[in-house]
Design brief:
3 helices; Protein Transport Mog1p, Chain A; 11 strands; globular; disordered N terminus
Length: 184
């Protein structure tokens, strides 16, 4: 009789386990906090034939036109995209050297070796820089330099952010870069 009673208990426990499994009762996964993502909606377009390009950007970002220095900037208050037109008869190598020398004196400065960058049919260079200023704030910058198809003008496109915000806004920066159209 004890044998039958034990078998009934085992069968009963087996039925409960099958029932609970079928009902989807399982240990709850821990809740993972995901970092807030930037809205990638590029709702505005900047177009200017005189500067030689157009680019889309988020509508809530501020735009800063510095016509005197042929520079256009976009910012959301945490990161910045900047495009500058540079003239040089000495070519891309000289512009790259000037850029590397142009970083102001920093507490720390690391610049990666330049790599070939293709923007459509235009061959340019890209490099990354990481630096900190006297207060210890660390920044990251992605720099691209490409020639205008007509010659002596070069475009310097940069994305700069406080280091801990860089990855968060990088998708937006890359979307903007992808929308950047250099006019013929």
């Amino acid at each position: 009789m004890d044998y039958i009673y034990d078998m009934k208990k085992i069968l009963f426990l087996f039925i409960i386990v099958v029932f609970l499994t079928a009902c989807g009762v399982e240990k709850a996964a821990p809740k993972v906090e995901r970092p807030e993502q930037e809205d990638l909606s590029l709702t505005k377009t900047f177009y200017q034939q005189e500067l030689g390009y157009s680019i889309n950007y988020p509508g809530e970002w501020l735009r800063d036109d510095d016509k005197k220095n042929f520079t256009l900037g976009f910012s959301n208050g945490k990161v910045a995209i900047k495009i500058q037109n540079l003239e040089s008869e000495e070519g891309l190598t000289k512009i790259l050297e000037d850029f590397k020398e142009g970083f102001p004196k920093m507490e720390t400065l690391e610049i990666s070796d330049p790599q070939t960058y293709m923007h459509g049919d235009l061959e340019g260079v890209m490099f990354d820089a990481e630096y900190s200023i006297a207060k210890g704030e660390k920044f990251k910058q992605h720099q691209i330099i490409v020639p205008h198809p007509a010659g002596r003008v070069f475009f310097a496109w940069s994305y700069t952010a406080i280091a801990d915000q860089y990855d968060k806004y990088l998708p937006t920066a890359l979307e903007m870069l992808g929308s950047w159209d250099i006019l013929q």
